[in-house]
Structure formats: C-alpha cells, structure tokens
Design a protein that fits this description.
216 residues; mainly alpha; Arc Repressor Mutant, subunit A; 3-stranded antiparallel β-sheet; 6% strand
Length: 216
C-alpha cells in the first residue's frame, strides 16, 4: 500500500483521492489495515503480559513455576504416576520432566517411591506440603482458558484456533515446537534454585519469550 502512495506522489496528483479499480478508497483501506495491525499487536502483547504476570505471581507468592504447578496437578488428579506418565500427560520431554521433578523434590512437594510389586518403577507421590500448596496456588492459565473456551460454540473455538494458527504462520513460527503451556521463559529446569527457571519445549521462540520475562 505504500507503493500506491508513492505512485501518487510521483504522478503529482494531490487533488484526487486514491481509488482502486473497484471504486473503493485506497487511502481509507490503508488506514483500516493499520488499525487492525495495531489491535493484533496489542492483543498479542496483552497475552504475553498476562502470562508473564501469572508466572511472576506464582514465583513471588508460592515459590513455584507454571510447569511445576501443572506437574503437581497431574499427580493430584491421577494419583501416583511415573515420570514418563506425567511427561506424556502434560506434553513435555522426559528429560525436562526429570528436571522439574528434581526441583519439586528439593522443595519437599513430591516424593519418589519405588513400586511395591515392580521395583523398577518409581512413582511420584504428593507430599502434604504439595497438597497444601495446591490449595493456595491459583489455577494454571491454560486451565482458565480451557474453561472459558468450553462455553463457546465449536465454530467459535475453531475460528479462534485457525486465526491464531494463521498468526503463527505469518510470524514464520510454524516449524517451532511448543509445549501447550502458558508460561513465560524457557521450560527446561536448569539451575538449582534460588533462581528458578521456566521450562521450555525444544524450539520455543526466544525472541517472543524473552521480552520482560523472568526465569522460572
């Protein structure tokens, strides 16, 4: 659209409006697209800020990260599980899962117990501290979103999904792998506290995640 404006300047016709072949006002169309771009950018920014604020709140008030909270909920909802079973349920790699469990065990929120019959299997149990934390901590953002989406029609949810997937395509991010978690920062647990780090699925976009994001 800038080329159309440039073309008018070269022609020196400042008196007549920009009119396309179908009779629409090109100048108004340009302004309309600019407004939509602004709305899209603001919406994306609000989503990023909501995720960041939720992650910061969890860390500041409960000393826990989003993926750690989701892990605790998986164990709470399904009873004792192996590390591999938890990883499958919450869509994380086994190696990432081990780091999260190590951190939770350090905080005395879970305990690892060998299966009574199959000693090769190690089950993850919640401790009393873990149960108490779940009573105090807010629900994960994706749980709130899922609950809100469940009230929409199938057409509305599929439209939202297609629109977001299109935004991903436009940003050139379709090839990136991403865990279905609304958390800020990388998902992989790296250090041993007191600087918690956010787990990240392989390939998460650092340019998007890094902005104003704290480590899990």
């Amino acid at each position: 659209m800038s080329s159309a404006v440039d073309g008018n300047q070269v022609m020196g016709d400042s008196s007549s409006p920009d009119v396309s072949s179908d009779g629409s006002d090109e100048r108004g169309f340009t302004e309309d697209v600019g407004e939509h771009e602004l709305r899209i950018l603001q919406a994306l920014r609000r989503i990023m800020r909501a995720i960041d604020l939720h992650s910061r709140n969890l860390l500041a008030n409960h000393r826990i990260t989003g993926p750690q909270l989701i892990t605790l909920l998986a164990v709470f909802e399904r009873g004792p599980l192996t590390s591999a079973e938890i990883a499958r349920r919450i869509h994380l790699s086994p190696s990432t899962m081990v780091g999260i469990l190590d951190r939770l065990e350090e905080k005395a929120l879970i305990r690892r117990v060998r299966h009574e019959e199959d000693r090769r299997r190690i089950l993850i149990h919640l401790t009393e501290n873990g149960r108490e934390l779940l009573k105090r901590a807010p629900s994960p953002l994706q749980s709130r979103l899922a609950q809100a989406l469940s009230s929409l029609s199938s057409l509305e949810t599929s439209t939202i999904a297609r629109s977001l997937e299109r935004v991903v395509e436009l940003m050139g991010a379709s090839a990136l792998d991403a865990a279905p978690m609304l958390v800020s920062g990388p998902i992989r647990e790296q250090n041993a506290d007191p600087q918690p780090d956010h787990p990240r699925a392989a390939g998460d976009c650092p340019e998007v995640i890094h902005s104003e994001m704290s480590h899990m």
